[in-house]
Amino acid sequence: MYDTAALHRAYQDVIAAAEEAAGAEPVAVPPGEWDAEQVLAHVGSVTAGTLAAVAAVAAGSPATFDNRISQDSWTIGRVIDRTGGGRQLRRRIAAQAEALCALAASLGTEELDTALPTLLLSHGRPVFEGPLAILDLLDGLAATELPGHAAQIRATAAPTAVPATRAASPAAS
Length: 173
Hints:
Elements: H1 5-22, H2 36-58, E1 65-66, H3 73-83, H4 86-105, H5 109-112, E2 115-122, E3 125-133, H6 134-154
Parallel strand pairs: 1-2
Antiparallel strand pairs: 2-3
C-alpha cells in the first residue's frame, strides 16, 4: 500500500498557493511562462493523466504516461474554460488529488512496481523517456512536480505588504 501523506501535502500546498495567488495582485509573468490559472490547469491535466494511468494499472490494463497534452496551450485554455477557472478549477484539483490519493493508497506492491512507458517533457523538451514505475511517478509528483508548481504559482502574485510595527522609542517608555 502506498503512503499518500507526502502526495496529499504537496496537493494541499498547490491549492494553498492558488488561493494565495487568487487573493493577491498578479505580477507580469515572463514571456512564455504561465499565469497561476494556467499552471493550475496544467496540474489538473497532469493529475488526470496520472489518475488514468493508475486506474489502468489497478484494472490490470496496459497503461502509459505521457505529459505532452498537459503542456499544450490550447488544452490548458480548454481546461480553464470548461471548469470556469478560478474557484471551480481549484475545487477540481482538490477533488482529483483526493481521488488520486485514495486510489494510490489501495495499490499493492506489484501494482506500485508496474513500469509504464513514460514520456515527460518540461518546457517542450524531453526530460525522461523510458519505463517508470507507478511508485516513482507518484513520488515524483509529490517531491518535484507539485512543489515546483506551487512555487511557480506563488511567483505569479505580488507579495502582500506586511505592516511594519513601530518599536517603542526609549523616550516613550
